[in-house]
Amino acid sequence: MKELVGVLAGNVFALSDAHGDMEVEPYAPIGLFSFDTRFLSTWVLTVNGERLNALSRDELEYFETRFVLVPGTASHYVDADVSVLRHRSIDQSFNERLTVLNHSAEAAEFTVRVEIGSDFADTSEILRPGPRRPLVVADTAHRQLRICHERDRFARETIVSSTAPVDVDQRGMTFRIQVAPNGTWHTDLHVGMIIHGAGGRDLRSSLQSHRHLVHHDMREDLARWFDHAPQLLAEREALTAAYQQALTDLASLRYTPLSYTDRVPVGGLPWAMALYGRDALITCLETLPFTPELTPATLRLLALLQGGRLDDFHDEEPGKILSELRYGESAAFGEQPTAFYYGAADTTPLFVILLDEYERWSGDADLVRQLRHPARMALDWIDEYGDLCGDGYLRYQPRNTVNGVANQTWRNSPEAIVDRHAVAPPFPRATCELQGYAYDAKVRGARLARDFWDDPDYADRLEAEAARLRERFNRDFWLPHRGYYALALTPDGEPVDALTSHLGHLLWSGIVEPARADALAAHLCGPELFSGWGVRTYAAGQRPYNPVGAHLGAVWPSDNALIAAGLRRYGYDAEAAQVVAGMFAVAETLGGSVPEVIAGYPRDLTKYPVQLPVAGRPQSWASGGLLMLLATMLGLRPCGDNLLVNPYVPDGYGRIELLDVPGRWGRADAYGRDRTTGRRVRVGGADGGRRGDG
Fold first, then answer.
1. Residue 166 per-residue DSSP state
2. Are 371 and 445 in contact (CB under 8 A)?
């Protein structure tokens, strides 16, 4: 696969080849995209009819990059008497400044050509874009090329404009220029993207001259993002670099949905540049000690979009929390159920879990009271629609059997839920982690009902239901001959015997009996599950195991973040540190954004984290996972109006200090050392001042 270069801002992104050109490829979403539509499918630069090659590329920010190009192949680089700077940036529009440099001692004439086209493909059809006949209007007088696509009320438009005189035709723009000896020439190309239709809005920058102001605002926004986040001081420089990269990735993956006012996390580049309920909820849970501002907007939006009826096509049920929100053509015309898709069984309990956890960190009682009705609907859904067999277990079975998602958990690939012999259980499926989430949601819902909703009877009922679920779960899911919990139960109550990373989610939820935690920790950190980089989704030694299978043996940072937190919850500090160290080793070894998933090969075999082609990078819950791993390492936990800090730092990390952790206490500092230099804690007061070492 060829190298791809991306710039992004929220859900607007552009992917090109290593030289900056965009041409349709069947394997990747190459082009300029916004709100699930490709607005540019062709963007190819030539000089005197010759393609250009990159001498270098500078990735300035996530929204900005620069290419230094020359004509010809590598053997001609040293002889080139012309070079081109291609400075690309993105906000709500796409901008490219072309600068031609004449290196000769004589004036030179050049023909600079940009081939331009759009197929307006939906992101769901990138492999095989459907036939469309866009209307193309070439306007040389106004230096503008307009490409339009309409289907009933669904309309999308690409407008390309230039600041320099240009000949415009239906396939692109041609500049016939003369450049002085050792002189330069430049033009700014601006690509506006317009969405027409119900709920649509104009996505263009109003003026080309606004370009630099927009980029200044984006830099200011990024600076504010870092200013609001805690500052990490670490002896291990690679840890600081990984932390800063994770914060940058999270900043880049914020977008404002149509008909909404605040920014929420998208899933990640390139396939998940949209709102995914599960990804957003877990990202918010991972980042509460660092970027808590993501959470209120996410909770409010998911409450606004909460299911209110029975709809088989969209897998919608009253009280169910959204799985996916798309704006593309296939969603608009019902060819895919993704306009509002609810095919997830875990988003609904996770909604309640996040609401409670956010209040514990922030003290925002108003939001808890405002979202009382959606939270109670979510809790009701667990029993009314989630308990499909009437046995008290949360299960899933797709209502949409044509193009709905079969496995409605975070392991959502079709083959992900199988036993150790590769046998898939029948529907409805009760996976083990769903029971942990449901238990946790009921416990947390009881606290919210008692402390904020003035409903002690409801709180008592939820607590009793949680206790019964915990008792039943530990009876029915436990496999005494294996020393772990079954992956799932069949409708008949038969256990699905498979050893998976779900054990860590169970620890994180608190549903595990303490006497059984020893066995789970041993499995999670044993050679079948732990690769050396992290915990595999599916343990080696079972028939379906595949180290490059996304959910059958690969390693996910987001998964490992919950696992490490679960291990520390039950007091397995050394085991948690092992997971933390492995995951940060991935980030430090690869550099840049941590990928969504890596292969599950043993570390001592490959010596290097093996990335998978399907992995998104950056990905919100992967980057958020690094932050959660850092919080787990430092043992950060809210307790009333105080931040508790109980560090257990892996060997070799030295001194770590996290300054200005936000919360209901104001700002506080956390400090820790690895075991080779001793362990200490420092906690700041509400004003951020230090109280001394403890």
1. -
2. no
In three-state secondary structure terms, 442 is: helix
What pLDDT shows up at residue 126? 86
From residue 197, give the alpha-carbon distance in Å to each of 24, 34, 47, 151, 156.
27, 15, 39, 10, 9
Cα 472 to chain centroid, rounded: 34
Q: Which residue has the tokens 């892996």?
A: 650
Q: Look up residue 351 and give its two tokens.
A: 């909604």
Tokens of 454: 């003035």
Q: Hey, what long-range contacts does 463-469 have (CB within 8 A, 24 or more apart)?
A: 465/383, 466/439, 466/442, 468/392, 469/392, 469/393, 469/435, 469/438, 469/439, 469/442, 469/511
- Cis omega (within 30 of 0) for bond into 456: no
- Please state at what angle helix 432-451 crosses helix 372-384, rounded to 10 degrees: 140
Q: Which residues contact 229 (CB under 8 A, 6 or more apart)?
A: 247, 290, 291
Residue 1 reports pLDDT greater than 90: no
Domains of the chain: 5-210 (2.70.98), 235-255+513-678 (no CATH), 275-498 (1.50.10.10)
Give the phi and the psi of residue 502 in degrees, each rounded to 5.
-55, -25
* Token couple for 504: 């860590």
pLDDT at 684 over 60: no
Q: What is the pLDDT of residue 201?
A: 44
Q: What are the residue ranges of helices labelled H in 501-651?
A: 502-509, 514-524, 557-569, 573-590, 603-606, 620-634
Cβ proximity of 254 and 263 under 8 Å: yes
pTM: 0.94
CB 158 within 8 A of CB 137: no
> Which of 11, 61, 60, 4 shows the shortest CA–CA distance to 33?
11
Average pLDDT estimate for 60-79 = 80
Distance CA 97, CA 14 (A): 15
Give 75-78's long-range contacts (Cβ < 8 A, gap of 24+): 77/53
CA 172 to the chain's CA centroid = 35
Which are the contacts of 465, defined by CB distance < 8 A and separation ≥ 6? Answer: 383, 442
High-pLDDT (> 70) share of the chain, %: 93
Q: At what angle do helices 372-384 and 456-476 cross, to 10 degrees?
A: 40
Q: Is 473 helix (H, G, I), strand (E, B) or coil?
A: helix
Nearest CA to 277 among 325, 237, 232? 325
Contact indicator for 390, 491 with CB cutoff of 8 Å: no
Question: What is each CA distance from 244 to 107, 283, 609, in whole angstroms?
Answer: 46, 16, 20
Compute how many other C-beta atoms are within 10 angstroms of the C-beta atom of residue 128. Answer: 7
C-alpha distance from residue 103 to each of 45, 80, 111, 178 (Å): 19, 8, 16, 13
Taking all residues of the chain, what is their mean pLDDT, rounded to a whole number?
A: 93
Please answer whether residues 488 and 425 qualify as being in contact, where contact means their C-beta atoms are separated by less than 8 angstroms. yes
Non-local (6+) Cβ contacts of 457 within 8 A are none
Question: First vs last Cα of the chain: how many Å apart?
Answer: 53
Residues ≥6 apart with Cβ < 8 Å to 117: 40, 41, 42, 147, 171, 172
- Partnered with residue 89 across adjacent β-strands are 64, 95
* Residue-by-residue DSSP string for 101-118: EE-SSS-EEEEEEEEEE-
Residue 282 identity (one-letter amino acid):
I
Calpha distance 16→24 (Å, rounded): 10
CB 62 within 8 A of CB 9: yes
Q: How many CB atoms lie within 10 A of CB 74?
A: 9
